[in-house]
Amino acid sequence: PHPPTxxxxxxxxxxxxxxxxxxxxxxxxxxxxxxxxxxxFSVDEPSSAGxxxxxxxxxxxxxxxxxxxxxxxxxxxIDEPELGNAIHGLVRWFPWLLASxxxxxxxxxxxxxxxxxxPWRLELGLEYRLVEDGLEVVARATNASPxxxxxxxxxxxxxxxxxxxxxxRLTIPASRRLTTDDQAIPVGEADVAGTEFDFAVGRPVGxxxxxxxxxxxxxxxxxxxxxxxx
Length: 230
Hints:
mainly beta
């Protein structure tokens, strides 16, 4: 039988092993030294709760599945019916074609043709590459339409250290977070300093419930922002 997530692409570097699935270019598993880095899923089941999926051409949610960009309407199917939203884009259930593969890297591509949910042509490419200090992911997007198109991308890995996070220390170099309404739609921003969402100085997660988009990220000299869980 064919796996629910299609062809499986395995890459390796030293004791690191990654499996990327054809459906959604999904990061299905990632282990280092035989220990799971991701709370992934098995080859005989589809992704649950967005595990490892690529979220494009929009991450998060569209209220009622409706939007407008440059006077062009978009109407997406409601796939979060309990909140009445269209969630996490369109390509996470699409097959992505293999563009190239080596022992340590795999590149996949997907074309999103114009449709009611997204009336533009979008060409997407994604490369997963294992290097000495971890997994690098590079995304490329080309608007192949004659007019401007809206675009956003996100990724949905469920990271794990093998134990509950309550007693682990979390550091997030962020000064603000997005606030949301009852439908989980962003409605504004708020400072995190002095609140339960303030992890600028590492502290235990404890009972804090996080389904949070942090902004105002401090970046290092290489332009990257780093969160730590230890």
